[in-house]
Design a protein that fits this description.
Layout: H1 2-7, H2 14-31, H3 45-61, E1 63-69, E2 76-81, E3 88-105, E4 108-126, E5 134-136, E6 143-145, H4 146-150, H5 162-165, E7 168-179, H6 186-203, H7 205-213, H8 217-275, H9 284-300, E8 322-339, E9 342-357, E10 360-375, E11 389-390, E12 397-398, E13 421-427
Antiparallel strand pairs: 1-3, 2-3, 3-4, 4-7, 5-6, 8-9, 9-10, 10-13, 11-12
Helix pairs in contact: 3-9, 6-8
Bound molecules: zinc ion (2 copies).
Length: about 425
């Protein structure tokens, strides 16, 4: 913390600042057209890259997405501080809000999805003195240094100020907070009233017709009161029906997802224990963000030949119908071990997926099974980007999504020496 104070004159409340940045990011998500490839300015080059893959998928399907997050008076805060990295300040702000997403095909809205979501993001600032840090030009993606970029990108000549480059959102994910159960009782009560009145009318048809055609005012009032009573009973019965339906829904939900919940609790206890053996400031929230970034890349990449984060057997993409995803809230670390100085983790991640087949859009809850690995000696670098890999041989920087070998000394690089990569990926 002392470094921050000596190098900045004005004290910044990074928690508050990160929440503001996420709010702006969400507001921009609300207004951009994802299908056109537009994306919030705070997004890092890597994040824009996966968003670009998703936008390409949408175009292939002639589909489009409109997000509407209701940030107004939504509870928010800063979840995790990851200050251990000496070059960056990192925060994980979150917002809990209602959201409505519209999915359309061929310009026609096919599905409206309402969910209460929690959005988490990683926000990073570069600490001032490290201007020699390699960084990608936010305009053309070429790798350069922060110092050079401040004087103008050597490739596309765009000029930046520090605030154009940092802070940045390096990753974000949506988590289902809870299903917005349609809580209106009215349809149930109307149905209740209708049923009770029909039943009463059916059994008292003769009485009712004689009373209402006669001149007996007292009988009319009595029958009127009885009918009103029926309506009240129907209303209450409908209300009870709704409550019972809710209880059944919650019970079924619990029965179906209870095992997942137990596995989540176990993962929360065991995985950090294992990871902190070689990565001191491991947090599960940050790690889940990484997993979802990897899943996003695997789902939206058309093929894996040029997919930098996939280091497994050649395989085909079996997720080409997916156009959007939300983290369901359940992960299960099935297996984790260290072998030849590489840490391996086998995870199940449950996601809501939005699938587009032809003109049809459907929502599914599914599980992705990933085996990921990385070197236990990998530096835990929060500014890490596959767009600015540093060559271990000559130290130059290059874009690993475009080049498999260092363009200067031609030596190969091994991505798992830097960060998590995927060995196996299955859609269950
Ligand atoms: Zn540039
Ligand atoms: Zn090199």
């Amino acid at each position: 913390m002392s470094e921050i104070q000596t190098n900045t004159n004005t004290e910044i409340d990074y928690d508050k600042e990160s929440e503001k940045i996420l709010k702006e990011f969400i507001d921009e998500l609300n207004s951009v057209d994802i299908g056109s490839g537009a994306y919030p300015q705070y997004a890092s080059t890597d994040l824009k890259y996966t968003a670009g893959l998703q936008s390409k998928r949408l175009n292939e399907k002639n589909a489009d997405i409109r997000y509407h997050y209701m940030t107004e008076s939504a509870p928010h805060g800063s979840a995790v501080k990851l200050d251990k990295d000496t070059r960056y300040i990192t925060r994980m702000p979150f917002y809990i809000m209602n959201s409505q997403t519209e999915y359309s095909v061929g310009g026609r809205v096919k599905k409206k999805d309402k969910l209460q979501k929690t959005m988490y993001a990683n926000v990073i600032w570069l600490i001032d003195q490290n201007k020699d840090e390699s960084y990608c030009c936010p305009n053309c993606g070429a790798v350069s240094t922060v110092k050079k970029l401040l004087a103008g990108c050597p490739y596309c000549k765009t000029r930046f100020i520090m605030s154009d480059l940092f802070p940045k959102i390096t990753n974000y994910y949506d988590r289902r907070a809870k299903e917005t159960i349609n809580s209106t009782v009215l349809p149930f009560s109307m149905l209740g009233i209708l049923i009770v009145l029909v039943v009463y009318g059916f059994y008292s048809y003769d009485t009712l017709t004689t009373v209402f055609t006669s001149d007996d005012m007292t009988q009319k009032i009595i029958q009127g009161i009885l009918l009103l009573g029926c309506a009240v009973i129907g209303f209450l019965a409908g209300y009870i029906l709704k409550v019972v339906a809710n209880i059944i829904y919650v019970l079924l939900y619990t029965i179906v997802f209870l095992p997942s919940l137990f596995r989540l609790i176990k993962t929360k206890r065991k995985l950090p224990e294992f990871m902190r053996g070689f990565e001191k400031n491991f947090t599960l929230d940050h790690f889940i963000g990484k997993l979802i970034y990897l899943i996003r890349t695997m789902v939206y990449s058309d093929n894996y030949d040029n997919c930098a984060v996939y280091c497994g057997e050649p395989t085909e993409n079996r997720c080409k119908d997916i156009i959007d995803m939300t983290y369901f809230g359940f992960v299960d670390a099935k297996d984790f071990y260290i072998e030849n100085d590489y840490a391996y983790v086998n995870m199940d991640v449950r996601m809501y997926t939005i699938n587009c087949k032809g003109r049809h859009i459907s929502k599914k809850s599914e599980v992705f099974d990933l085996l990921i690995y990385k070197s236990i000696h990998a530096e835990n670098d929060y500014g890490f980007s596959i767009h600015k890999i540093e060559c271990k041989n000559c130290g130059s920087s290059f874009d690993a999504t475009k080049e498999k070998y260092c363009p200067f000394c031609k030596s190969g690089y091994n991505l798992p020496d830097y960060d998590w990569v995927i060995k196996e990926f299955k859609r269950k």
